[in-house]
Amino acid sequence: MADLEDLKTALLSDIAAAADESALEAVRVASLGKKGSISTLLSGLGKMSPDERKTEGAAINTLKEAVAAALSARRGVLKDAALEARLANETLDVTLPVRPHGAAAGRIHPISQVMDELAEIFADMGFSIAEGPDIETDDYNFTKLNFPPDHPARDMHDTFFFHPDKQGRRKVLRTHTSPVQVRTMLAQKPPIRVICPGRTYRCDSDQTHTPMFHQVEGLVIDRSSNLGHLKWILEEFLKAFFETPTVNLRFRPSYFPFTEPSMEVDVQCSRKDGEIRFGEGSDWLEILGCGMVHSNVLRNCGLDPEIYQGFAWGIGIDRLAMLKYGMPDLRAFFEADVRWLKHYGFRPLDFPSLASGLSP
Ligand code: 2NL
């Protein structure tokens, strides 16, 4: 009996001294575990006489219950203390400024913004959007578009060519997005109303040219599509894009292999203190090229020029962005300078209309 009292005193003081839950668990294993002191005493009962077993058994069980109760009480105290310590450590300073969410800190690149604006304006006029690969065949980039074999664009100095394959066919980084329209004509039956925005490439690098730039081309094919339709579409597009109630356009004769007749289009504008305004003034700014799709191109793309006719145009997206948002240097577009993007970029989810980048 005296031994049991000593054991009880020792265990209770171990329990009281346990500083954390793992120390307490060690005391539990040493007493109530399979080979613990109390379990060993209990397994010794079998060797005792029935009388001894009765008194000793009752005493050991009382000890066991007392130890179990002390363990459980101490576990509760330690759990509360651990929670208190965590709460004291993990304080939250509610006076700190709120860190902006990623969607608020990020910016949309002006090129992406302008592409979205173009998509919205032309979608409103019933156009769909087509995309194609940046690496094209010589056939889709030049031959189907009626480029003669000796055209300067086919020269190494003007176009990025890949090494020729075993059959002598050389792929190119597309020099315009026209191959996407070629693919569209080959895949769809008229009427066709499509715009093709995307990256284009030419061996050119100076203040106003980067080897990679962006273009959007448009194509309309139907039985009676004509230059009157083209003029209306371009006027509507330019008014919506530059957010002016009127635009005056001037069509000058020009030459492209893939259109006949071909034209260059100037917008009337005023220039004051380096600022360009449309819909007023007496200056002209060249803005795009266009024309009626050449009958050879229609034929090359599986369309009968006796039945179908159409028009097409091409515009530089980078220049559109520079004009609309007053960015003076084209090269900054592709330098990935976060300060530039913070200044000229657009907030996501922050505009009432995709086609209204200027008016809030
Ligand atoms: C420019 C001129 C232009 C086209 C692109 C085109 C496409 C097909 C057939 C006929 Cl598939 N034409 N595209 C037509 C005229 C002009 O771009 O100065 N771009 C920057």
User: How would you state the average pLDDT, rounded?
Assistant: 90
Structural class: alpha+beta
Helix content range: 40-55%
Give start-end ranges of low-pLDDT stretches.
Answer: none
* SSE sequence, one letter per element: HHHHHHEEHEHEEHEEEEHEHH
Rg, rounded, reads 40 Å
Subcellular location: Cytoplasm
Binding site for Mg(2+): 260
GO molecular function, one term: phenylalanine-tRNA ligase activity
Subunit structure: Tetramer of two alpha and two beta subunits.
Structure explained in plain terms:
Its main location: cytoplasm. Its EC number is 6.1.1.20. Belongs to the class-II aminoacyl-tRNA synthetase family. Phe-tRNA synthetase alpha subunit type 1 subfamily. It comes from Methylocella silvestris. Mg(2+) binds at residue 260. The protein has 360 residues and is α+β, with helices and mostly antiparallel strands. It has two domains: 1-90; 109-344, 2-Layer Sandwich (BirA Bifunctional Protein, domain 2), CATH 3.30.930. 41% of the residues lie in helices and 21% in strands. It contains twelve helices and ten strands. It has helices at 2-17, 21-32, 37-44, 50-89, 102-105, 110-124, 138-141, 178-187, 227-242, 295-300, 317-325, 338-344, and strands spanning 128-129, 135-137, 171-173, 192-201, 212-222, 249-256, 259-272, 275-278, 283-293, 309-316. Strands 1, 4, 5, 6, 7, 8, 9 and 10 form an eight-stranded mixed β-sheet that branches. Strands 2-3 form a two-stranded antiparallel ribbon. Strand 6 (249-256) and strand 7 form a beta hairpin. The chain is elongated. The termini are far apart. It binds 2-{3-[(4-chloropyridin-2-yl)amino]phenoxy}-N-methylacetamide (2NL). 2-{3-[(4-chloropyridin-2-yl)amino]phenoxy}-N-methylacetamide binds at residues 178, 181-182, 215, 217, 219, 256, 258-259, 289-291, 293, 297, 312-314, 316.
